[in-house]
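PROTEIN DESIGN WORKSHEET
SECTION A - STRUCTURE
LENGTH: 245
TOKENS:
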């Protein structure tokens, strides 16, 4: 580029307006005429492409490993109801199926109350109240003795499901009844052990040979028992006066 052409260049014209002629010419020569132009190659560098592919593969492996460590998402309450995973099938709604469960529950209650074979136990509310409140009632034989719904009074059977607000009971007529706990009083009996806890687990023996006729009778106020079984097991209960009883 000649001096005449550089003087007519728009960049030189603008520099001449802001700087003296010698300074403007120096800046124009260094920054415009002799400015290096860096051009990238049209074909990609194979080295950079390999590094990019390696980084992408590492990200995919890391993401796959993170998904593998994650636990599966639990089902929501709506999905559980739709799938019916907690529903008891019709062929399993038979009273005789749960009689061994009831015998196991009686032995479990003997251990909780400290009853020994061959001896009649003496149970007080102060000593056994908190134990019974936190006990497991799957397998207990409950009877509704008082309820706001008159149609539920007299329902008796073995508990096969203990939820927060209801008991699911299988009756001797092989009927599955769902009884709300609220505003309902249940009664259950614990036979006195006659020959020890282990005898109740023996199959083929009559209940009259394993238990004495005297039984411990308890009443359960469902409105004060609206807790799930796992929550009751870890909860500490305190004695207090209930104004609604």
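SECTION B - SEQUENCE
RESIDUE ASSIGNMENT:
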């Amino acid at each position: 580029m000649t001096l005449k052409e550089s003087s007519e260049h728009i960049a030189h014209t603008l520099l001449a307006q802001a700087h003296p002629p010698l300074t403007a010419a120096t800046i124009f020569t260094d920054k415009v005429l002799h400015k290096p132009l860096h051009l990238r190659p049209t074909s990609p560098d194979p080295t950079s492409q390999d590094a990019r592919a390696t980084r992408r593969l590492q990200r995919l492996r890391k993401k796959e490993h993170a998904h593998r460590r994650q636990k599966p998402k639990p089902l929501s309450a709506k999905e559980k109801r739709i799938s019916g995973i907690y529903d008891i099938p019709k062929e399993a709604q038979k009273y005789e199926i749960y009689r061994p469960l009831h015998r196991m529950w009686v032995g479990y209650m003997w251990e909780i109350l400290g009853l020994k074979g061959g001896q009649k136990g003496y149970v007080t509310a102060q000593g056994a109240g908190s134990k019974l409140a936190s006990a497991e009632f799957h397998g207990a034989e409950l009877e509704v003795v008082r309820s706001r719904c008159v149609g539920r009074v007299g329902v008796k059977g073995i508990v096969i499901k203990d939820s927060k607000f209801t008991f699911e009971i299988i009756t001797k007529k092989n009927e599955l009844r769902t009884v709300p706990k609220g505003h309902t009083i249940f009664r259950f009996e614990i036979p006195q052990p006659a020959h020890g806890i282990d005898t109740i687990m023996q199959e083929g023996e009559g209940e009259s040979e394993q238990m004495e006729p005297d039984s411990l009778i308890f009443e359960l106020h469902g409105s004060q028992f609206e807790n799930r079984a796992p929550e009751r097991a870890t909860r500490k209960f305190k004695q207090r006066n209930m104004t609604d009883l």
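SECTION C - NOTES
Residues 46-69 form the longest helix (24 residues).
The beta strands are 141-147, 156-162, 166-171, 176-180, 184-193, 211-221.
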